[in-house]
Amino acid sequence: MALLNRDLGLVAVTDLASMRVDMTLRDAVEDAIEGGATMVVLNEPTLSHDALMKEAVRLKILCGMHDIPFVMMRHVDIADSVDADGIIVAFEEFDPGRIRSTLGSDRSIGVLVSKPDEARKAMDGGAWFLMCGPVSVGHDGEHSDCITIDELEAVCAAVDIPVIAYGGLADTDINFLRGTGISGIGAATGIFGQTDILNAASSLRRISREIL
Fold first, then answer.
1. Of 41, 35, 67, which Cα lies nearest the Cα of 129?
2. What is the pLDDT of residues 195-211, one digit of tens each?
3. Domains, the chain, with CATH or none
4. Cβ neighbours of 94 (radius 10 Å)
5. Residue 5 reports pLDDT greater than 60
6. I need a surface site. Which of 67, 75, 78, 103 has the fewest CB within 10 A?
7. Rg of the chain on CA atoms, in Å
8. pLDDT tens, residue by residue, 136-168
9. Three-class SS state of 110
């Protein structure tokens, strides 16, 4: 599957901890896809390895049914086992030789970054795309662990590969990302922490089309 294009759209990052509805992760993700998610990332750090593998199998099949990419957060072994379309790793864990030796050359590698120098090093190391954040939207500098809009824009300017902005992004936040150079928006709580997952994804996707 061709994973990347310049408009990565709405990336749904799973978030069981924030879910407010009584449904399986697979069904929640299907609602997100039907709402307009264009890529799914499985990111459940509290699940055991076996439980994560089972969810990965379910979501890989589901994403295949809808013809959208399925990507693992970390866990290169699981990504390989379920034939995920890609992997995302933290900048500190980015070892392109090891990852490529496991996944081969035809699957995408994404790297979590927050600074321009990290972005350039990841790109030079063979990353196909970046996830940048968490972004502090509309209240720059309020949260010490977040990056500002200006910092996000600097990351985008430093590389010529797609950048996905992520963080606690909701409808009212998205317009702040206009003109930063991003190619996609990653949402976790903004989708899975809502009482109506399908409509939350639909709204975020509609707004993302206006700014990407």
1. 41
2. 999 999 999 999 889 88
3. 9-211 (3.20.20.70)
4. 21
5. no
6. 67
7. 16
8. 765 544 556 788 899 999 999 999 999 999 986
9. strand
Q: Which residues, 6+ apart, have CB-to-CB distance to 105 below 8 Å?
A: none
Structure tokens, 162: 């797609």
Q: Is 119 within 8 Å of 163 (Cβ atoms)? A: yes
Amino acid, res. 181: G
Instruction: Give this prediction's pTM.
Output: 0.93
| Three-class DSSP category at 135 | strand
In 3D, which of 179, 173, 189, 180 has the Cα closest to residue 151? 180
Q: For the residues of 18-48, what is the DSSP string, one character each?
A: G--SSS-HHHHHHHHHHHT--EEEE--TTS-
Reference 99, options 118, 71, 119; nearest CA is 71
